[in-house]
């Protein structure tokens, strides 16, 4: 029988705080680590220098095991025709806001894991290095493991779980359809292959002999207990932490999470070019949810960022990615440690309200 997550990592609670780029940094990760869970630092939007600074900040405020998370997508070449088609799809918004989009992109802000990132984290020897969208070069994976670090990655199908297990990961994060943020899929772009977490989890557990961590829609002790009953070695929770004071969630995003809008989410590619679950807003409704004109990840974000820059100062989230899972009921304005311990009651099967 695979180890429980807390046994594998020598932590108190088998709960991972999901890495959430753009809405959190070292402060939330450290709060979860210090409370006995596994805090995660999203690294995909950090330059090598910023990465070293943020991990240094993290290690200054916790001495517990932590997770560094990276994207490992293949950068796509975006043609002039693709960029022009995307600008045409957004033209009405540009006209409305008086924006003249540039002919050339401002630059990609989500870089895949590379040699510079590998070098930047080596001295920290993190307990976990996790990946989204598959794995990077396998010699880099072996180098990470040579430090004594564990390697995790996300599977959204049984086939992806088998592939990850065959390529040396130490644990698999089974991401259900309910999860907020980007899908971790990497073997197929066909979203009809995706299933809910409670359907996916036992199927993956039956296929691999390494620990499987449940992710997606888990926002209460009861959800934690259900995942553990289905064979999970632990759970990964993201959306529920977004209202914690240690999160960097913007005021616009917090307001959406606390509104009725949070009950309506969709998988959409309009923000980055890759399917990700967000609260439905104007851009999702009028251009998506899945827009054939969106250029490949992450290039769609370049043009959308211009719309955000024009509208967010006006207190509008019409063009803002409002990442959120299908279950926002667990979002609570309480310290991360308090939320973590409430969720952890599901491990033992008893829960009290907070």
Description:
- It is a single chain.
- The chain is an alpha/beta fold.
- The chain has a domain at 76-108 and 243-323.
- Helix content is 36%, strand content 13%.
- The protein contains 14 helices and eleven strands.
- The strands form two sheets. It has an eight-stranded parallel beta sheet with strand order 1-9-8-6-5-4-3-2.
- Strand 5 (150-155), helix 8 and strand 6 (171-175) form a beta-alpha-beta unit.
- Helix 10 packs across helix 14 (336-348).
- The two termini are 34 Å apart.
- The mean pLDDT is 95.
Percent of sequence in beta strands = 5-15%
- The helix-strand sequence is HEHEHEHHHEHEHEEHEHEHEEHHH
- Provide mean pLDDT, rounded: 95
Main β-sheet description: 8 strands, parallel
Distance between the termini: 34 Å
Class by SSE composition: alpha/beta
The radius of gyration over CA amounts to 19 Å
In percent, how helical is the residue content? 25-40%
The number of strands is 11
């Amino acid at each position: 029988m695979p180890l429980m997550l807390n046994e594998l990592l020598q932590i108190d609670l088998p709960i991972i705080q999901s890495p959430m780029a753009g809405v959190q940094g070292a402060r939330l990760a450290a709060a979860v680590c210090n409370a006995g869970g596994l805090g995660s630092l999203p690294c995909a939007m950090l330059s090598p220098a910023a990465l070293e600074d943020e991990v240094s900040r993290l290690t200054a405020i916790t001495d517990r095991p932590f997770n560094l998370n990276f994207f490992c997508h293949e950068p796509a070449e975006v043609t002039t025709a693709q960029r022009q088609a995307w600008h045409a799809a957004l033209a009405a918004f540009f006209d409305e806001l008086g924006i003249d989009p540039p002919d050339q992109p401002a630059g990609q802000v989500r870089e895949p894991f590379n040699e510079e990132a590998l070098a930047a984290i080596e001295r920290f020897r993190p307990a976990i290095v996790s990946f989204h969208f598959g794995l990077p070069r396998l010699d880099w994976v072996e180098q990470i493991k040579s430090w004594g670090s564990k390697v995790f990655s996300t599977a959204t199908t049984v086939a992806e779980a088998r592939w990850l297990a065959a390529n040396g990961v130490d644990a698999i994060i089974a991401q259900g359809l309910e999860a907020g943020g980007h899908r971790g899929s990497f073997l197929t772009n066909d979203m009809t292959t995706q299933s809910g977490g409670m359907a996916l989890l036992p199927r993956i557990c039956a296929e691999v002999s390494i620990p499987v961590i449940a992710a997606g829609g888990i926002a209460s002790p009861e959800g934690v207990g259900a995942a553990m009953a289905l064979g999970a070695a632990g759970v990964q929770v993201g959306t529920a932490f977004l209202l914690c004071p240690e999160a960097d969630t913007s005021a616009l995003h917090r307001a959406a999470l606390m509104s009725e809008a949070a009950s309506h989410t969709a998988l959409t590619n309009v923000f980055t070019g890759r399917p990700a679950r967000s609260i439905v807003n104007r851009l999702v409704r009028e251009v998506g949810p899945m827009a054939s004109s969106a250029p490949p990840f992450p290039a769609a974000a370049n043009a959308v960022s211009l719309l955000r820059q024009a509208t967010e100062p006006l207190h509008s989230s019409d063009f803002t990615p409002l990442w959120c899972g299908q279950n926002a009921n667990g979002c609570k304005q309480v310290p991360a440690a308090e939320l973590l311990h409430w969720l952890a009651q599901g491990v033992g099967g008893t829960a009290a309200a907070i």
